[in-house]
Design goal:
Strand content: under 5%
Strand order of the largest sheet: 1-2
Oligomer: single chain
Number of strands: 4
Structural class: mainly alpha
Number of helices: 46
Radius of gyration: 35 Å
Shape: flat
Largest sheet: 2 strands, antiparallel
Length: about 950
């Protein structure tokens, strides 16, 4: 009755508070108090309302009432009252009082729901230490509910995994979890007619899985093996029979971690007697590893086992065949080996069984490449003698083409690569004419053409690859590997809108945001910083990047429920996997890469950027996936690296670009008069420059993560940060004098060098202005803005924008000084007086002679040689003039590119000639650079004519549409 009365009385207060009408809510509180309402819920609600008042005295009164209620001897245990008090403490920045309140509440009562709610809240905040403490009350309040005993073990181990907890505490809780599990394992009866009650011993397969995980983490792998093979947990035990597959998986992990190879050999041999394990690749892989590392030779036993499982009398076992082929490959050349005869016969038998399967050469490629020349010729003859399939499909000829790609060494001969591509396209055409798909032939041809581009430096071959891939996609629109390769080719050729449009149309079942997104969105700001629009769709890049970040963060937040369900259902392995996934998602490098790209695009659009979170203290977690890229050889892997938009970015790149982002954001926030954000970015600039510089100096491979343009972008940001600190701390407003003169001279020199490069590009000089040279000519006539050109142009435009904003910021500072601040120094951002350092400013600041010398030496060594004295003369161009000149040269190059891409019949016809290889109409220079013989080009032309048909055909219309 009392609860219903309280509910009726507090309802008007809550409604007013939900509407944000805090004054009205306070009046309702006074009315309720006059009626004699004294419940904990009302008192907590009243304190909450007072804490939201504008009057500071009322807020202080709310603080006092909340603390009085929370510290009362008889602590509130009403769930709603506690929630209101917690909200009040959050509003008043007294979050430590919330923890004290919860701990007192759950310790004074036997309210199970209250105790569970507190634990769920701790887990949601990943406060495993508090969650473990809350479980102490469960043992006292609910002694008959034994599952909480095991929950306590889980929480102890989660504390051990928490990197935010003190190292000693982590070790302590890890050892505590291990010892509790040892006792639970010892309590399992050997004669398992009946298991003990839950909480007194290990009783489920999931608890056994958790036990093994803890043992392996603590370095007790040998003990885990001993337990799993004991009568308590072997395959005949009650627990082992609950989930035999899980137990076998745990045993394999424990054997591998323990490196007990002799024992592993015996156990694997026993496991392979069971049909379900005989088809498990993991068992075979462990068997081969154990045989190679065992202290006693078991070669005869292993060979007999492999031969038995691959005997013709047995049903075909793919796992056994692959294992035996790997084994014979590893034994090739041994004195007691029978040569490669057995290996050859295995390859032929395996191909005969799986010739129509897409994975056949993924398994065979590393094997056939190891065969000697004689056996390779025999296998080639075997493929040539294969009869067509009953439906007329030429599987053998297609396989022969793939086989040649597998066994031939990576070639730098463009003629051979183009010939191999032509042969693959001819096989595709035969299959297409017969009504079949031969997508792998199209992909193989495209990879060979891209390889030709890589070794010759001609993007015309990429244009040919794009046409072939589009023809293949028209026939097989769901071919995922083909679409991904096409996206890579479009990006390399600079047709980023096409790449983004194709990326947006990838089927969601392929999870393109988790897999392909990093291929498309990395460095997108420096090749296509505006909305992608083509005739089929438009794609907003900011939205795409936000979705990329959201996929990571949304996945992290949705994992909280998984942990809770894992505890309630006893799925302890799910909890461990969830916690590990949350930790890696939280530090995923993609979160920062996408945020950096978003800010760059935002600034180039003259909009306000956002402040990016600081990077993790440890290493980034790299969750990017490259396994889906089609490739059978090392040459294919190199082609994918060549097509990627710049080198693979890692931790050094990410931290460097975050610093660049902070420098650019600082001047942007200063001009927008956003004091708080400007102060935050200034502190980052001041505190991060020296640590970043020293980290790069101690990381030998950092330049392998960046393009040449990005290294200069970073150098300009480091130099400009020096100037900014001098201006803010010492009022150095004259850029031609004092401590700021040298950094500005270095910046001017790099900008001047860039102007020279772009001038050479605009004049058609063969200056290597990009990371891989000038790759813009198609057929000696038409130029296309390939990836390198776009990337370098936009990187330097970013430098121009930042310098222009910096100059405007300096102009405004000088103007303010003239208007009434006399000779005063420029005011430093909040945190200290100009010219003075705070107590924590001694480490990591960018001002001072040491930093200046360090930075100059680093730029001279890593970026470009030191400037000569002549470059510092008084007649040198000013920064503003250089920025304007660089912007003008970049714009001139872009305009020339647009003129060359005009959709005139002559240009379209020339591009068609490039695709069909109809000869060189572009001048002698192109002929000199082309190393392909006339016959090869004529054969390619004839083949493309057959594939595309006459003018007006569907295929020819597609070709012309692509290159228009």
């Amino acid at each position: 009755m009392a609860d219903s009365v309280t509910e009726r009385r507090v309802k008007p207060i809550e409604e007013a508070a939900e509407a944000g009408q805090w004054k009205h809510a306070l009046k309702e509180c006074e009315k309720c108090q006059k009626k004699g309402e004294k419940s904990d819920r009302f008192l907590a609600l009243k304190a909450w309302v007072l804490a939201h008042q504008a009057d500071e005295k009322l807020r202080e009164r709310g603080r006092a009432e909340a603390l009085q209620l929370a510290r009362r001897e008889l602590v509130p245990t009403n769930q709603r009252a506690i929630d209101l008090l917690v909200d009040t403490f959050d509003e008043l920045s007294l979050s430590n009082e919330s923890d004290k309140l919860w701990q007192r509440a759950i310790s004074q009562g036997d309210n199970k729901d209250l105790a569970l709610n507190y634990m769920w809240k701790c887990m949601a905040k990943e406060n495993w230490l508090e969650a473990q403490k809350s479980l102490a009350s469960f043992k006292k309040a609910f002694p008959k509910e034994r599952q909480y005993e095991f929950w306590n073990v889980v929480m102890c181990f989660l504390v051990h995994l928490d990197s935010s907890v003190d190292e000693k505490q982590r070790a302590l809780f890890g050892m505590l979890a291990y010892r509790m599990l040892v006792k639970l394992a010892e309590a399992v009866p050997t004669q398992q007619d009946q298991l003990l009650a839950p909480g007194k011993s290990i009783v489920t397969a999931e608890e056994l899985c958790f036990l093994v995980y803890v043992y392996l983490d603590g370095g007790y792998a040998a003990e885990a093996v001993q337990l799993l093979t004991s009568p308590k947990f072997d395959e005949n035990s009650i627990i082992g029979k609950q989930d035999p597959q899980l137990r076998s998986e745990l045993l394999l992990k424990a054997l591998t971690k323990a490196e007990k190879w002799d024992e592993a050999l015996s156990i694997c041999a026993e496991l392979l007697k069971r049909p379900e394990h005989a088809v498990d690749d993991r068992v075979w892989d462990l068997l081969l590893t154990a045989e190679a590392k065992a202290s006693t030779s078991r070669q005869t036993d292993v060979e007999a086992l492999l031969a038995d499982h691959t005997a013709p009398s047995r049903a075909h076992n793919r796992s056994a065949f692959v294992a035996r082929m790997k084994y014979l490959k590893s034994r090739a050349g041994a004195s007691d080996d029978q040569g490669n005869g057995d290996l050859l016969s295995l390859c032929t038998a395996y191909f005969s069984q799986h010739q129509a399967k897409p994975f056949v050469f993924a398994d065979l490629a590393p094997i056939v490449s190891s065969l000697d020349r004689r056996d390779q010729e025999l296998f080639r003859k075997f493929l040539s003698d294969q009869q067509p399939a009953p439906n007329g499909r030429q599987h053998a000829k297609e396989a022969l083409a793939i086989f040649d790609r597998c066994v031939e060494l990576p070639s730098s001969d463009v003629i051979a690569l183009v010939r191999r591509a032509r042969e693959a396209v001819e096989l595709y055409d035969v299959a297409r004419t017969g009504g079949f798909k031969a997508t792998n032939m199209v992909i193989s041809a495209a990879l060979d053409l891209c390889h030709s581009s890589m070794v010759s430096g001609k993007v015309a071959y990429i244009l040919r690859a794009i046409v072939l891939l589009e023809l293949g996609r028209a026939q097989d629109p769901d071919a995922f590997h083909l679409s991904v390769l096409l996206i890579q080719c479009y990006i390399k050729l600079g047709a980023v809108s096409q790449a983004l449009g194709l990326f947006a149309k990838l089927s969601i079942k392929n999870l393109q945001m988790e897999s392909v997104a990093h291929l498309v969105l990395s460095r997108i700001s420096s090749v296509h910083p505006h909305e992608a629009v083509n005739e089929e769709l438009s794609l907003d890049l900011i939205e795409a990047l936000d979705v990329g970040i959201d996929v990571i963060t949304r996945g992290t937040s949705s994992l909280d429920g998984s942990i809770r369900m894992g505890l309630q259902n006893g799925s302890y392995s799910q909890i461990i996997n969830t916690v590990a996934l949350k930790a890696s998602s939280r530090t995923s490098i993609q979160r920062w890469l996408y945020a950096i790209e978003t800010n760059k695009i935002t600034r180039l659009s003259n909009k306000a950027p956002e402040l990016i979170a600081e990077p993790p203290r440890g290493r980034f977690a790299d969750l990017r996936d490259y396994s889906f890229l089609y490739g059978l050889t090392e040459g294919d892997d190199k082609v994918h690296d060549y097509l990627r938009g710049g080198p693979k970015s890692g931790g050094s790149f990410t931290k460097a670009m975050l610093f660049v982002d902070n420098v650019a954001n600082f001047v942007k926030f200063e001009l927008a008069a956003d004091a708080d954000l400007a102060q935050t970015t200034y502190e980052r600039i001041k505190g991060q420059a020296t640590p970043l510089l020293r980290e790069l100096a101690n990381t030998p491979g950092w330049k392998q993560e960046m393009t040449k343009a990005e290294t200069r972008l970073l150098a300009c940001a480091l130099l400009l940060s020096q100037v900014i600190v001098q201006v803010c701390e010492h009022g150095s407003l004259d850029l031609d004098a004092g401590e700021v003169r040298q950094p500005m001279t270095e910046i001017n020199r790099m900008v001047a060098d860039a102007i020279g490069c772009f001038k050479g590009e605009a004049n058609g000089e063969d200056a290597k202005t990009t990371d891989s040279g000038v790759h813009q000519s198609l057929g000696g006539m038409t130029k296309v803005p390939v990836w390198e050109f776009l990337h370098e142009s936009y990187c330097w435009l970013e430098v121009c924008q930042t310098l222009a904003l910096f100059l405007e910021w300096m102009r405004q500072k000088k103007q303010k000084q003239k208007q009434g601040k006399g000779g005063k120094k420029a005011a430093a951002p909040k945190g200290g007086k100009a010219g003075q350092q705070g107590p924590d400013d001694n480490d990591g600041t960018v001002d001072g002679e040491n930093m200046d010398a360090e930075l100059r030496a680093w730029i001279a060594k890593e970026i470009q040689p030191a400037a000569s004295d002549e470059a510092e003369g008084s007649d040198a161009p000013k920064t503003g003039e250089l920025v304007s000149s660089l912007h003008r040269e970049i714009r001139e190059c872009a305009l020339q590119m647009i003129d060359n891409l005009s959709p005139e019949d002559l240009v379209v016809g020339r591009l068609v000639d490039v695709v069909f290889a109809k000869g060189d109409k572009g001048g002698e220079s192109e002929k000199e650079n082309t190393k392909s013989e006339p016959g090869a080009e004529e054969e390619w032309n004839a083949m493309m004519q057959r594939v595309c048909g006459e003018k007006g055909s569907q295929e020819m219309e597609l070709v012309e549409k692509l290159i228009c």
